[in-house]
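Thread: Newbie trying to understand structure tokens

Hi all, I'm a second-year student working on a class project, and my supervisor (Dr. K.) asked me to get a predicted structure for one chain before our next meeting. I've only ever worked with sequences, so writing a 3D structure as a token string is new to me. If someone could post the tokens and maybe explain what I'm looking at, I'd be very grateful. Here's the chain:
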Amino acid sequence: MRIYTCTPVAFGGGPDFFARDSGLLCRGLQSIGVDSRAVMSGAACEEDEADLIRTDYANLESAEWWRTLNLDGIVLYAWGRPAFRKVAKAIRSAGIFLILNQDNGGLVSPLAGMRDWFNEQKIISGLHSDKAGIIRFLKLVVRGTTLGLLATDPLRANHLKQGDIIACVSPKAAAYYRALCNRYGGRSLAERVDVLPHPVETRFRHSGCRKRRQIACVGRWVDSIQKRPELMMEVVSKLVEEDRHTSVVIAGNSTEEMKHWHASLPGTHRNRVDLRGFCSRDELLKIFDESQVFYSPSAFESFGIAAAEALCCGCSVAAEQSVSMVSFEWFVSESSGTLASGGDPAEHVKTIRKELHAWETDTRDPAVISCHWSRLLHADQLANRILTRCEGKNLP
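---
Reply by user tm_fold:
Sure, no problem. This is what the structure looks like when written as tokens:
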């Protein structure tokens, strides 16, 4: 079988690309014996790996060009965006089995569920974070209910109709997409929706080491609206004040505010808060392997790859329940975490402490958590599921 992955955006093609998403899925397919390469538009870069195919964007919109590759399947990471519908159509016209990856929580249109969509616009706009949030919120709502419904949705529908499988990254996202696709093309289109999450590198697994009473927290902290570093700092401060036996490792490039906050902590608290900064993949693996709980203070996540990696390392997850964090509803579903009922810092601390208590009372088992989520999320496991679908078989 020849199954390639493709993204129409000109990203870098080095090791980082092949450590996640379409690049990592390509590696997963290779690991199970499938002939696989990654296809991307743009000029070649010095860092590009040998199994990356660069081509002019015009070729991606050409059925003739796709036919020259003699493929059995393509997994297209194009987010269902109207701008890339011609790429999807060209692959379909070339007679290649097409899986469309949807890297989002499912609320891409009011047609997926008006109330939840409206609530998500409040969250992703940062409505309550600053005065500019009101403007951002109004722009999102006006655009989504006018131009979105009149122009974007019909073009997105045209894109999704090209796919043999519309792959969503979580069960709740799939439910939203089924509602949306039912509006776009009826039951026959909705039935193409499937759950195929993002892959996790197979090295992310629990080593069997004894876990510490430690919280792992990873983020791109400069993104204040999404990652909410202010909330994280308040939660961590309260946590280490209330629980003198707990330590916290915070990974990701620190902002100046975070550095000042860390320096201002009382010495006994500061010693238990490791502001680690940027971490390599190997360092993250060690942090997750040793930690009991992964805490995400995020307001929204399309998936949450750091949380998925932590689960594969046997961590449980603590986060906030939200229409913009639907993957996390799945992540905590197998005795593997707890969600806070709101964004109040005290509620987040309570949720983390509940998880720590679960570890104390042996109701969290790192081997069980790691085994369950590795089976669902590891790149080779996901590749096997992709192969099965390309062969036209159904999983039991």
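A couple of things are worth pointing out once you decode it. The radius of gyration is 22 Å. The mean pLDDT is 96. Feel free to ask follow-ups in this thread.
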